[in-house]
Design a protein that fits this description.
By secondary structure, this protein is mainly α. It has three helices and no strands. The chain has one domain.
């Protein structure tokens, strides 16, 4: 898929916005995004 940083960032923004739309607590959103952040290097350019 060769995902680039801008693709990854767009996915993260979309996930944040979707979770916020469904009234997920901001602390929980941040926790989820932090977990996904640990996978960034495993996802990019693959």
């Amino acid at each position: 898929m060769n995902l680039q940083p801008e693709h990854y960032d767009a996915i993260v923004r979309h996930l944040h916005d979707a979770l916020a739309h469904f009234n997920v607590d901001e602390a929980d959103i941040n926790e989820a995004l932090a977990k996904i952040g640990t996978l960034r290097d495993d996802i990019l350019f693959k």
